[in-house]
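Note to self: user wants both folds in one dump. Writing first protein now.
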Amino acid sequence: MKRINTMALMLGLGVAGVHAQDIHVRMTFSGNGSPSAVDLKQPASNNVEENVAGNGTFGAFTFRDIRAAAMFPQSSMACAGAFFPALAGGAIMRFQDGSLLKLSLKEGGDCIDFVQKKAVCTLMFEVRGGTGRFQNASGILTYIENAAPVLFDASGMNLALGTEVGEITGTISGVGHDDDHKAER
């Protein structure tokens, strides 16, 4: 009986160890970005959002973020153009199996080259759990996109729609297997 209890304990710890493993993430995407109608109520900011889809470590996904970006550029050693820092925001990733991953913006922003009419957006997100296999997930993901304008507003000064391609990388732990959450669906 003692052996059975010991074996059960070891098996349980082994399964918990599998769930606690760090998973290195790499996902590529494409999609669009535009101003957002959602107002995050940050002073001196504009609200923007990205809607992209892609594939990678956890399979096919969609990604939507909404964030407040500073209205006026700030200096940045990493940006040769105009840098507009992200002030607040979050994102949701939805995977093909229906699992959701919740993300909270930590830092980042847009580096815009107005002469070349292109931008690089780099955002860091903290993983805040989710649903399905991501219920207990945690970690940090970095979203890097290259953006180009498609459509400007009537004034010709404000971007109305842009293309976006890039990748999401980082490390996540606490991810379950698809089978672990079938009863939830």
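First done. Writing the second protein, which came from a different request thread.
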Amino acid sequence: MIAFATAIILMLITPGPGVLAAAGVGASYGLRAGSRYLAGLFAGNLAVSLIVISGLWTLLATLPNLRFALSIASLAYFIYLAAKVAMANSDISFGHVTNAPRFANGLVLQLINPKAYAVNTFLFSNFPLFPSEWALEVGVKLIIFNAIWIPIHFVWLQLGAMIQRLDLEPHVQRRINIMMAASLLVVVALAVLEIY
């Protein structure tokens, strides 16, 4: 169990789309809006875990056209999310881009997050805890995974919210938002390239 927990920590503390989005939403919109978004990320990650555990992801991953379509959808959504973060608290906006991301946005992000599938596949395919008792193993792994996932993502959200509470000059806050958005896009591009 220690090796499993250590692997989770190491995989989650590295910046991925989920943690960067949580930090970006926290920096752009604050802790309250970020908490709703984080709840969506959690629900989405739980759904990804169940998709991986059920074997559905293995089946879907064998379909190259579907993988390509999911990658395009993922990139498009992350560009949209990065635009929301970059344009937060600015006079420049399009549509409802300045509205804080909500629960549904976090849910969608995790469902199309390539790193979420890679992490879940690795964790649930390795580190046998109870090899002869599948249900017990899955249950214990889900509990350990989420017991680590929640605080790590909440710390990233808090770090972002701390930036917002600093009451920085508007141009400095804008630069931070743009930097968060750019980092999110770079990490997503790397995750997509890793899959191919």
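Dump finished. Worth passing along: The chain has one domain: 18-195.
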